[in-house]
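Figure 6 in text form: structure in, sequence out.
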């Protein structure tokens, strides 16, 4: 598992939103626990994000990778890494086949790409998506 910092940043940002008490408690605990593993942090990010947007159709949430075919070398690292099977390999290149399977706020595959072909929208786009919906509540 890669660096813990992206997960810590995402968890801090998620605390700004209305989270169920059990999720908020877990996030707060993990943020205060320097021994928390990257796996624990990733799981907490996923759960918090899922619980935050549970009522929104996933197709409305723009959070998934983009692969620049001009940069892709076909190494397959993104494909091999992603447990959600977001990617497919075809004609020696990677492409995003199932964007709706991407875990919201996860971008762990991007730094694995030696060519820099995998990118994500800024996390702020996800938060901008949530803001008007929170105001409706």
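Output sequence:
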């Amino acid at each position: 598992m890669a660096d813990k910092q992206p997960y810590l940043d995402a968890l801090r940002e998620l605390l700004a939103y209305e989270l169920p008490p059990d999720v908020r408690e877990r996030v707060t605990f993990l943020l205060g626990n320097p021994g928390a593993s990257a796996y624990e942090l990733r799981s907490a990010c996923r759960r918090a994000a899922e619980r935050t947007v549970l009522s929104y159709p996933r197709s409305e949430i723009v959070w998934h990778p983009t692969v620049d075919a001009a940069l892709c070398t076909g190494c397959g690292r993104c494909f091999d890494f992603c447990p959600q099977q977001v990617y497919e390999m075809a004609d020696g290149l990677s492409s995003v086949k199932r964007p709706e399977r991407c875990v919201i706020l996860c971008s762990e595959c991007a730094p694995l790409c030696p060519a820099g072909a995998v990118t994500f929208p800024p996390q702020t786009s996800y938060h901008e998506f949530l803001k008007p919906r929170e105001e409706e509540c």
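Caption detail: Residues 5-58 form one domain.
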